[in-house]
Amino acid sequence: METKTRIILICSGKGGVGKTTLTANLGISLARQGVRTAVLDADFGLRNLDLLLGLENRIVYTAQEVLEESCRLDQALVKHKQEPNLSLLPAGNPRMLDWLKPDDMQRIVSMLTDKFDYVLIDCPAGVEDGFKNAVSASKEAIVVTNPEVSAVRDADRVIGLLNTHGIKPIQLVLNRVRPRMMASQEMLSIEDVTDILALPLLGIVLEDEQVIVSTNRGEPLTLTGSKSPAARCYSNIAKRMQGEEIPLIDPSKEGSGIRDKFRRLMQTKIF
Amino acid sequence: MQRKDSCLQTIILPVSRHSDWRESLKRQINECEPGLLELDCRDWSLSYKDFMNILTLLEKFHLKINLIRADIPETIVSASSLGLQASLNIKQPQCSTSSITEDIAKKKESEPLTFHQGTLRSGEHLEADGDILLFGDVNPGAKVSAGGDVLIWGRLLGIAHAGKRGDINSKIVALQLRPLQLRIANKVARGPQEKPEEGLAEEALLESGQIIIKPARINSLRTA
Ligand SMILES: Nc1ncnc2c1ncn2[C@@H]1O[C@H](COP(=O)(O)OP(=O)(O)OP(=O)(O)O)[C@@H](O)[C@H]1O
Ligand SMILES: [Mg+2]
Fold it and tell me: Is the ipTM of this complex over 0.90?
């Protein structure tokens, strides 16, 4: 039963904070580091991991057929063309939600553990059945949140539930950090968030327009070798997961616009 | 970790007015075999510094503490803060030596003190009929409500309700009092807007029908 496969739930409580984007980008980054990675879409209601990875048109079978035993696991797995170390197990149709049980989820995941080093589970928002099913099959978790009071509150609730399910370790990713808003204290600071949630910070991801562009193209940022701020953040997180020690990006030294860079240049010249 | 030892040794400190606990402890340690030990502090109010001294002393004799017992919560808190297992003695009224302990004992007998170790996270609710002593924070969105006092060895950022069945003498004490809302008996108050001073324990209680917040008295955690 005991395998070395790391089964990591990517969850948040609140919707739209960036779980699916993180799952897709970590999947690509980990695969690129040479580890066999499966991403599993547990969001049966609103699946879109396939879309973000640009794999939507290659799906033939889904987790549903695997569970019904009308196809084999390897028939349902969709291998990523450019990163063959990455495979997606697509979610079945939304009606699966009605009958899917924690046992089913555990069965799917245990099938994946033979073939992969990492299984990343993209969790649906909320704390209802979809979340419970996904938790029951996971060992570790990454909680994604934004520097906003409501997202932090929901993350806190989810962490409490993860604790009661014995999920360990639980790490934190703070997404959509805007350095300038943080500096002017219009946004919760990193300390404000970690102070409440009391979790080790796996990484921060900067707010980045390129994320939206890449989402629409179906090419995760990390796939294209982009040097954009968020791409760097995602690949740093993947490296930390693999045990590399990479210092956190200091938001006060980051700015997206040329104006920010210019301003920093000015400051260094003057002082 | 916690080996269940068949022959657990026990040291019981004398009642506080009779003699010095230090002398008595040293005397009793000399008679102990190396191994595990249960220490009953009776009604001594011991600080964590006292416990640090006790631990160094015990180490010299190769003794390890298995459990701390005490009559007063303050001592329990000190012991727990060092990671020691601690348990509150629930006294029978007839063996109490003063009227105060008698009062507490009576109260405790009907509604025991509830301990909770660990932070309450958003959506969690800790409830008890008696007093609650919590080691950890009460996060925003979490709630703690007690029939008696709410004592928080940590930060109160969520909601606390003391005296939920109408006991107007109940109070709320926390190392950092920054609640969203406070309730005592049937009174409700929003938390203060400004942050309190760091390192200043505060308590909330009812004074002429109003919830007021003030610096906690040293013995507030003693439920006196
Ligand atoms: N770092 C970022 N910078 C800019 N936009 C971002 C960033 N991260 C995510 N987004 C955008 O936020 C939106 C929501 O992201 P995503 O779908 O990954 O969230 P989710 O948590 O999976 O949502 P749901 O709960 O609905 O499944 C998307 O439009 C995405 O492009
Ligand atoms: Mg999603």
Answer: no
Greater confidence, A43 or B204?
B204
Residue B182 CA to residue A234 CA, distance in Å, equals 42
Ligand 1 pocket, CB under 6 A: A 12, 15-21, 43, 46, 125, 175-176, 205, 207-208, 211-212, 215, 230
> Hey, whose CA ends up nearest to atom 30 of ligand 1?
A212
Ligand 2 centre to CA of A67 (Å) is: 22
Q: Domain coordinates of chain B in residue numbers?
A: 2-97, 114-215
Give the contacts of A186 (CB within 8 A, at least 6 positions apart). none
Looking at the predicted structure, is the pLDDT value of residue A268 above 80?
Answer: no
Size of interface A-B (CB pairs under 8 A): 27
Cis peptide leading into residue A169 (ω within 30°)? yes
> Is pLDDT above 60 for A179?
yes
- Annotate A44-86 with DSSP letters as a single string: -TT--HHHHTT-GGG----HHHHHTTSS-HHHH-EE-SS-TTE
| CATH code of the region B114-215 | 2.160.20.70
The structural domains of chain A, ordered by start, are: 6-266 (3.40.50.300)
Facing B141 at nearest CB: one of A156, A163, A198 = A156
Please state the pTM of the whole predicted model: 0.75
Backbone angles phi, psi at A147, to 5 degrees: -75, 60
